[in-house]
Automatic annotation (TrEMBL):
This is Succinylglutamate desuccinylase/Aspartoacylase catalytic domain-containing protein. Its cofactor is Zn(2+). Keywords: Hydrolase, Metal-binding, Zinc. GO terms for molecular function: hydrolase activity, acting on carbon-nitrogen (but not peptide) bonds, in linear amides; hydrolase activity, acting on ester bonds; metal ion binding. Residues 46-226 form the Succinylglutamate desuccinylase/Aspartoacylase catalytic domain. Signal peptide: none annotated.
Length: 336
């Protein structure tokens, strides 16, 4: 790639230019192109190239608005580097309002880095990966909870990799859940290919949630400041932060009875050991099961659909150490 120029198959974006592109990644049953929207913003000054992607799961919408606002509403005057904005990766899933590619229900987010001579999902993934992910220096992939659940804004990243850890911290979320991520996922495969990448989880599917979108935009500002793309902005500190590495630092509380769930807390809430988290009742509203917090922690995710079988997940809880607990207690003085 020539100094400062962003090139892809079929085009180039010069320093100081912005291009909105519809890039073909597959074809429909009618033989028409399936094209993903891409905005390349090439700053006047050189610097890192960062991708921002959303809707690799087609019904996870919050990130779409984050990426669109960065691409279309921010001023990029003085940008030092290049932004590759990919607001809708899974176009067939987005059109059908479904998580997976409607073609055999494939998960596009298990199909990276892809291959040109493989399945439809992997061919699509290969186009996206080689054209718009591999040329980058780092990336942020936006997700929401799976349908029927919601979560507080948090980052998933392999913080044992120092470069990924730097990126994860720069996003300035309260909670970082550390893992390599599943094979075939965009963040795992991009990171393995030398493009440190984090996932941001925020809210629920099928919604635009303004408060979370604003919080994520602050995270993007902070990341771009950390890497010098927007030198006038400052790197944020979230007030308190916990990095959850091990299995014993987090747990999915599961239902031990079937029934209707009444949640007593929302995502992001602080709970102390023994606090009632939810109650599961039968159709006569006779109490059948009370679920209590096994340790002091923060509720990262909760179910939205209140109907459960025994074994269904109720709540994703992460443990807080004593210092972090005190910091959260100051932020949430009304916690039980
Ligand atoms: Zn997702």
């Amino acid at each position: 790639m020539a100094e400062g120029v962003f090139t892809y198959s079929g085009g180039r974006v010069e320093p100081g230019e912005t291009d909105d592109i519809r890039y073909p990644v597959s074809e429909t049953y009618l033989g028409d192109p399936i094209r993903i929207p891409v905005t390349i913003i090439n700053g006047e000054k050189p610097g890192p190239t960062v991708f921002l992607s959303a809707a690799v799961h087609g019904d996870e919408l919050n990130g779409i608005e984050v990426v669109r606002e960065v691409a279309q509403e921010w001023s990029h005057e003085g940008l030092e580097g290049t932004l590759v904005c990919l607001p809708v990766l899974n176009v067939p899933g987005f059109m059908a309002q479904e998580r997976y590619l409607p073609i055999y229900d494939r998960d596009l987010n298990r199909s990276f880095p892809g291959a040109e001579d493989s399945t439809s999902a992997r061919r699509m993934a290969a186009r996206i990966f080689s054209e718009f992910v591999e040329p980058c220096d780092l990336g942020i992939d936006f997700h929401t909870s799976t349908r029927g659940r919601t979560n507080m804004l948090h980052v998933r990243a392999d913080t044992d990799d120092p470069q990924v850890g730097r990126l994860a911290k720069a996003f300035a979320s309260h909670v970082i859940i550390s893992s390599q991520g599943p094979g075939g996922s965009l963040r795992r495969e991009a990171t393995d290919a030398g493009v440190p990448t984090i996932t941001v989880e925020m809210g629920e599917a099928h919604r635009f949630q303004r408060d979370l979108i604003d919080c994520a935009l602050d995270g993007v500002v902070s990341v771009l400041a950390e890497y010098g793309l927007r030198p006038i902005d400052a790197v944020r500190w979230p007030g308190w932060r916990t990095i959850v590495r091990d299995q014993d630092e987090k747990t999915w509380l599961r239902a031990n009875a079937g029934g209707v769930v009444e949640m007593h807390h929302t995502q992001g809430a602080l709970v102390h050991e023994g606090d009632r988290i939810c109650t599961i009742t039968n159709p006569f509203k006779a109490e059948s099961d009370t679920v209590r917090a096994p340790f002091d922690g923060v509720i990262v995710g909760v179910l939205e659909n209140p109907l459960v079988y025994p074994g269904n997940p109720l709540c994703h809880l992460v443990r807080l150490d004593a210092d972090t607990l005190r910091a959260v207690e100051q932020e949430q003085p009304n916690a039980e």
